[in-house]
């Protein structure tokens, strides 16, 4: 509890004890009023002060005013205990609310506990010095010891370690890094000492961006929140006027008809009406629900930029995916190596006649090696994946007479043996008969020593969780899933079929993707939302065109974080369904609270006006409903782990 | 120009009122108050003097919620 809250708590305890004691004192009249004024003022002085200031400033209709009028009215009517009790319960409710809000705020900041406090810089004498991360220039070498957070994005110069990325991604599996690897701020260094050269300023680092994003998220208000603002604007004056009418009109009518006026009864009813009407339950519980939902999601590596997106996400019916980097890893890998029988025979003959048997065997042992060697000078992504799959250092002096035939492939002499690698056209050009492959992906045909030696398939690998992600979205009630890609139709259809995606648009240019999404936007119903999921780098226009843009954060890709409304920190598409689940739960709680609070209040207002329920019920309708609504709202913070 | 200020405010409704009050101050293009993160974002109008405008904003906020606090760094 804060100091302020503690002070209120003491006031509550003192006032409560006094009220209880007075209950058993047999006093009447003026003395009773004076005695009850003590707890009343102890507990309510600040509310009376605020109400008075409000009236002076022309801000009449607020909660303080409601409470002040209701209790002063009760005092005038001689209901002293009631006046003190109303104030007391109102303060208990306020204290509870402020405590609950403080707790969930703290909870959320703890979940997002990624702000580094310092960076270690090595001084000339070898001593470590702790400095403010804000003051570290780009290119500075910082030291990160085990157990410390990486304060600034950078590149590992020395050392290797495992990093805990869970605060950023919600992923519990540690990530291994070694020298040369990029590391992002906010990760916790688990095992080894790391020397990191910073590549960004602190303000530009991932951790700052994320904190900024999360802090900003409560600034973008949802429709429900705006509704409450407008609602409160008209509600309080309306209630005050009704209460005034309730106090004055019926007695006036009674007088006109010649009956006794019954002022006391009607004024009591009007005061009950006022206490009941306080809109706090709605005003506090709705932003709290959204705040909790956003906080709970960020603990799972889902960053949501505003409550309004939580609202749209709950109504999403169409999910459009970009293929590369979203459903697939975006890394081209060798997925199949198929040597021909002729090559196998040739290889055996080679290793038998080799002078240095060991070396020769490594070079010709697989079809990958000659392919990697012949492509060793090429910067093409395919060449890169071949070299990566080969996995050994390439001695480029062994390659001579490299000739790149544009649109076909490469030929060269490797250790004096002619090797060719390329597409079907290259094989035809060389006049070789080859075995055609129908598999999805890019096919590289290889010829060694003038004979066809087999083929290698290079394709973009699906993410392990992609099929699961689609399945869960369907289970969550998504009407249609669509995949857009610039890739060839054959590959696109193959991937879509494997993942269970409903519709595919292939061979698209970035601009075509916008057109496709626009077409889908026209098709969908007015209340249905369309989400686009992309890796953000070249999808920015589509991300902003869709109702909700979801980006794969790609561990620190700026373009993604900026263009999208929702960022998945660990690039795991399964999180989309989880985000929808959180959004739906949050919205359900918001509606529960709205309906519950309005229903209880409406019935209490009605019963109070008819004189059936008294002040006690009014206090429940005010404080009780608020406590229940706040407790319900706090549920938003908790997301079940699977 | 957009600036963020830490604030202290005790009730959600007061935060809403502060937001409205801040928006009406001359020199403020837009303002947003978040009760949950106890923060006020002010978007200043072209050529507005930050100090003078914020003094007016604070005054306007104190008028609707006497207990509120705005912190400057």
Highest CATH level, the class of chain B? Alpha Beta
Overall structural domain count of chain B: 1
Specify the CATH architecture of chain B.
Answer: 2-Layer Sandwich
Strand content of chain B: 25-35%
Query: What gross morphology of chain A would you assign?
Result: elongated
Q: Which residues of chain B form runs of ≥5 with pLDDT under 50?
A: none
Q: What is the number of E strands of chain A?
A: 22
Main beta sheet strand tally, sense and closure of chain A: 7 strands, mixed
Descriptive overview:
The complex is a heterodimer of chains A (642) and B (73). With 642 residues, chain A is of the alpha+beta class. Among the domains of chain A are: 119-148 and 152-204, Calcium-transporting ATPase, cytoplasmic transduction domain A (Distorted Sandwich), CATH 2.70.150; 330-461, Calcium-transporting ATPase, cytoplasmic domain N. Chain A has 23 helices and 22 strands. Chain A has a seven-stranded mixed sheet, with helices on both faces. A six-stranded antiparallel sheet of chain A has the order 2-1-3-9-4-7, with no helix packed on it. Chain A has a six-stranded antiparallel sheet with strand order 12-17-16-15-14-13. Chain A starts with a helix and ends in an 8-residue tail after the last helix. The model of chain A has no long low-confidence stretch (mean pLDDT 84). Chain B has 73 residues and is of the alpha+beta class. Chain B has a single domain (2-71), classed as 2-Layer Sandwich (Alpha-Beta Plaits), CATH 3.30.70. Chain B has two helices and four strands, in the order βαββαβ. Chain B has helices at residues 12-24, 50-64; strands at 2-8, 28-34, 39-44, 69-71. In chain B, strands 2-3-1-4 form a four-stranded antiparallel sheet, with helices on one face. In chain B, a hairpin with a 4-residue loop joins strand 2 (28-34) and strand 3 (39-44). Chain B starts with a strand and ends with a strand. The mean pLDDT of chain B is 85. The interface between A and B is medium-sized, with 28 and 18 residues.
């Amino acid at each position: 509890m804060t100091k302020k809250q503690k002070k209120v708590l003491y006031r509550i305890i003192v006032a409560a004890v006094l009220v209880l004691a007075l209950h058993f004192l047999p006093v009447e009249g003026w003395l009773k009023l004076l005695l009850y004024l003590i707890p009343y003022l102890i507990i309510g002085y600040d509310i009376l002060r605020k109400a008075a200031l409000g009236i002076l400033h022309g801000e009449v209709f607020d909660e303080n005013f409601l409470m002040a009028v209701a209790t002063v009215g009760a005092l005038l009517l001689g209901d002293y205990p009631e006046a003190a009790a109303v104030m007391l319960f109102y303060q208990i409710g306020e204290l509870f609310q402020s405590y609950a809000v403080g707790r969930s705020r703290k909870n959320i900041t703890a979940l997002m506990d990624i702000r580094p406090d310092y960076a270690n810089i090595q001084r000339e004498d070898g001593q470590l010095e702790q400095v403010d991360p804000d003051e570290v220039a780009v290119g500075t070498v910082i030291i990160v010891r085990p157990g410390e957070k990486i304060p600034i994005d950078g590149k590992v110069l020395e050392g290797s370690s495992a990093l805990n990325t869970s605060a950023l991604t919600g992923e519990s599996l540690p990530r291994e890094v070694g020298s040369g690897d990029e590391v992002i701020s906010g990760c916790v260094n688990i095992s080894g000492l790391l020397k990191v050269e910073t590549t960004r300023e602190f303000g530009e680092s991932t951790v700052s961006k994320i904190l900024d994003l999360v802090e900003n998220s409560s600034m973008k208000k949802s429709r429900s929140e705006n509704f409450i603002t407008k609602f409160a604007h008209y509600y309080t004056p309306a209630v005050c006027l009704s209460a005034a009418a309730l106090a004055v009109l019926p007695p006036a009518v009674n007088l006109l008809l010649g009956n006794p006026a019954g002022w006391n009864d009607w004024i009591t009813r009007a005061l009950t009406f006022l206490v009941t009407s306080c809109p706090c339950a709605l005003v506090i519980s709705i932003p709290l629900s959204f705040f909790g939902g956003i906080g709970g999601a960020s603990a799972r590596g889902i960053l949501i930029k505003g409550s309004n997106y939580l609202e749209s996400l709950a109504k999403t019916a169409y999910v459009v995916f970009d293929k590369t980097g979203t459903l697939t890893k975006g890394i081209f890998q060798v997925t199949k190596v198929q040597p021909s029988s002729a090559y196998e025979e040739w290889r055996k003959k080679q290793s038998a006649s080799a002078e240095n048997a060991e070396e020769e065997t490594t070079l010709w042992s697989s079809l990958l090696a000659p392919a990697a060697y012949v492509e060793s000078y090429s910067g093409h992504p395919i060449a890169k994946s071949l070299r990566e799959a080969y996995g050994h250092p390439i001695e480029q002096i062994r390659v001579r007479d490299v000739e790149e035939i544009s649109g076909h492939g490469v030929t060269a002499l490797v250790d004096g043996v002619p090797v060719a690698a390329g597409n079907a056209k290259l094989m035809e050009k060389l006049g070789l008969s080859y075995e055609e492959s129908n598999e999805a992906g890019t096919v590289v045909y290889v010829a060694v020593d003038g004979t066809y030696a087999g083929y290698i398939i290079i394709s973009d690998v699906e993410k392990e969780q992609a099929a699961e992600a689609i399945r869960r979205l369907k289970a969550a009630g998504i009407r249609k899933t669509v995949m857009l890609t610039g890739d060839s139709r054959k590959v696109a259809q193959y991937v879509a079929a494997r993942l269970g995606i409903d519709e595919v648009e292939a061979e698209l240019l970035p601009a075509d993707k916008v057109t496709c999404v626009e077409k889908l936007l026209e098709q969908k119903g007015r209340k249905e939302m369309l989400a686009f999921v992309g890796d953000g780098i070249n999808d920015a226009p589509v991300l902003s065109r869709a109702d909700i843009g979801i980006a794969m954060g790609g561990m620190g890709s700026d373009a993604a974080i900026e263009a999208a409304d929702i960022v998945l920190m660990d690039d795991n598409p399964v999180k989309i369904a989880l985000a929808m689940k959180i959004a739906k739960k949050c919205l359900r709680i918001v509606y529960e609270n709205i309906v519950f609070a309005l229903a209880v209040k409406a019935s209490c207002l009605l019963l109070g006006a008819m004189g059936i329920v008294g002040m006690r019920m009014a206090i429940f309708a005010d404080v009780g409903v608020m406590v229940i609504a706040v407790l319900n709202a706090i549920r938003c913070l908790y997301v079940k782990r699977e | 120009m957009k600036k963020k200020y830490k604030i202290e405010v005790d009730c959600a409704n007061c935060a809403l009122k502060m937001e409205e009050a801040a928006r009406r101050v001359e020199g403020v293009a837009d303002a947003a108050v978040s009760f949950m993160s106890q923060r006020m974002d002010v978007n200043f109008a072209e050529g507005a003097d930050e100090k003078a405008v914020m003094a007016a904003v604070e005054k306007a906020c104190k008028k609707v919620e006497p207990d509120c606090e705005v912190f400057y760094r």
